[in-house]
Specification:
Elements: E1 3-8, H1 11-24, E2 32-33, E3 40-47, H2 55-66, E4 74-84, E5 92-99, H3 103-114, E6 129-134, H4 141-148, E7 155-161, E8 163-172, E9 175-185
């Protein structure tokens, strides 16, 4: 069972990002472009730490996530685009996220809650972003890099989040299919 914890995107942000992808996709057909229904802000990739059919471990993951709390909601601004590792050697095209200071501690709290269940901690620092494309070959990538410059400072929208979600991801030939298993309200005292 392939699992991850994420925040969902508001509809207007998803729509703005898809409009951009529609413009860029014809320039680089070899890229693996994000689909609207698959866009999310990953807080923790759990992976296959829960075996298919292991209802006991899945219940433990759900219970651990229910303990994760924050003192305030999380404000997100979806703004700008860029490339990992950089525009000279791009492997990934992303949209940036500017978040309130409590987002990284929330992700760290999710890590702490899951670690006793055998879910390893992420060794890299938490960097909120939305993966929009992965480049499998260099064909067309330079054109995307050049054209993406006009989106480098674009505002795609904002949101205030009060819950995160546990998803199952099933890999299929046409891309991953995500199923929401549960939602968790993380704000201790919502205003």
């Amino acid at each position: 069972m392939r699992l991850f914890v994420a925040l969902e995107l508001p509809g207007e942000v998803r729509k703005a990002l898809i409009e951009m992808i529609v413009q860029l996709k014809p320039l680089c057909r070899g890229a693996k472009w994000a689909r609207a229904e698959g866009m999310h802000v990953t807080l923790k990739f759990i992976g296959n730490a829960v075996a298919d059919g292991d209802t006991e471990k899945l219940a433990a993951v759900r219970a651990a996530l229910a303990t994760v709390k924050s003192d305030a909601s999380i404000d997100l601004r979806y703004r700008g685009t860029g490339f990992f590792p950089n525009a000279r050697r791009p492997n990934v095209f992303w949209a940036g996220i500017q978040a309130s200071p409590n987002l990284a501690p929330l992700a760290a709290e999710i890590e702490r809650a899951l670690e006793p269940l055998g879910v390893p901690r992420e060794p890299r620092p938490f960097v909120p972003h939305l993966t929009l494309a992965r480049f499998k070959s260099p064909e067309g990538v330079k054109r995307v890099v050049i054209e993406a410059e006009k989106f480098a400072e674009r505002e795609f929208g904002s949101s205030r989040e009060t819950e995160f979600h546990l998803f199952e991801s099933r890999l299929k030939s046409d891309g991953a299919e995500h199923t929401k298993l549960e939602s968790y309200r993380f704000v201790r005292n919502p205003a």
